[in-house]
Design goal:
Blueprint lengths: L9 H9 L2 H25 L2 H17 L1 H14 L10 H14 L4 E4 L3 H5 L2 H7 L3 E4 L2 H8 L16 H10 L13 H12 L1
Parallel strand pairs: 1-2
Length: 197
């Protein structure tokens, strides 16, 4: 499933979003959880401003010396038998990955979602040559099965009512029984994913 942008006008999308009670509740819930976790982390770290400054220094250092670190990474991966490919375009990157998979005669690709794979349109490139792409992250997998576009942060899925989750799997004719509670859904999905891999 490739990342898509809507062709609807911005104001129309805003109006639709404002009136989407489910999504507003999901975003609000995710924000509250993330804020609560941030406060907990701040308490545990102590002088978090110093940690933030140190993190920014490290980030700036790495960005200023990115060629060195990329070369070091490539050398270390190669020493361990891996292959590194530096692509200049999204098409080169997704094309290289597709060629490796096709050369291995694969039929199914099980991958973790990342914004990089979305930005290079990897899923669509793989699906275009008949490969079945399955996301490993439960939240992303639920979005994929339910024909939703991937999101940068899928934590909102925790807010989806258990009935709508199970209903989605039943609607798609997936062999998953209705879960008793929200904690029983991940093991059931895991068991299902184990059968299709």
């Amino acid at each position: 499933m490739a990342m898509k942008t809507s062709s609807a006008k911005f104001k129309d999308r805003v109006d639709e979003g404002i009136h989407n009670d489910f999504m507003r509740l999901a975003v609000s819930s995710a924000q509250e959880r993330l804020h609560g976790r941030r406060l907990t982390a701040v308490d545990e770290l102590g002088s978090w401003e110093d940690w933030r400054s140190l993190g920014e220094e490290i980030r700036q250092h790495v960005l200023s010396n990115l060629d060195f670190y990329l070369h070091q990474l490539a050398e270390n991966v190669s020493k361990r038998g891996g292959h590194v490919f530096f692509a200049e375009t999204a098409e080169q990157a997704s094309g290289y990955i597709k060629d490796v998979i096709v050369k291995k005669n694969a039929k199914k690709v099980v991958k973790s979602k990342s914004m990089v794979t979305e930005e290079i349109n990897l899923n669509a490139t793989l699906e275009a040559v008949g490969l079945d792409v399955v996301e490993t992250d439960l939240g992303e997998y639920i979005l994929q099965v339910d024909d939703h576009d991937p999101l940068p942060i899928s934590s909102h899925l925790r807010s989806i009512k258990i009935k709508s989750r199970s209903g989605m799997f039943l609607k798609k004719s997936l062999p998953i029984r209705k879960p008793k509670n929200r904690r029983s859904l991940p093991p059931m999905c895991g068991a299902f994913c184990g059968k299709i891999s």
